[in-house]
Design brief:
This protein has 127 residues and is α+β, with helices and mostly antiparallel strands. It contains six helices and three strands; from the N terminus they run αβααββααα.
Length: 127
């Protein structure tokens, strides 16, 4: 994924692959909510673009359709999104944290998790 950015639509497709492990284009299309379900060819075109970005790959062919799997983990994709978000704020996390607090989306458990992760990093470990 070395620099590939995923759009919201691509992330929705990836969620299906992360949940199922692998899926056909039809299965990915049907995973969308019925009222907002894109057409088959729309999903197909997006999958082929994602394949060119090397975030998905074909694993096998069954009959006349291909089965795809994600080549990027959910964690790696989420890290990229967060990095991109922070870049919009000049790398500063405070405006993001302030918004999360103001919106009531930062819980005490989140703060405790962050404290543990920071302590672990300080001690030379991973978060």
């Amino acid at each position: 994924m070395a620099g590939a950015r995923l759009t919201r639509f691509e992330m929705q497709i990836m969620e299906t692959l992360w949940a199922r492990g692998e899926a056909s284009i039809r299965e990915m299309q049907e995973a969308f909510h019925e009222k907002k379900r894109p057409g088959y060819t729309t999903v197909q075109k997006m999958i082929y673009r994602m394949e060119a970005k090397q975030v998905v790959r074909r694993v096998r062919k069954v009959g006349n359709f291909h089965i795809f799997t994600a080549t990027v983990s959910r964690d790696a994709a989420q890290r990229r999104l967060v990095d991109d978000l922070l870049a919009m704020f000049g790398g500063e996390s405070r405006p993001v944290v302030a918004h999360l607090i103001g919106a009531g989306k930062l819980t005490l458990e989140d703060v405790e998790y962050a404290e543990k992760a920071l302590k672990s990093l300080k001690n030379g470990g991973k978060p």
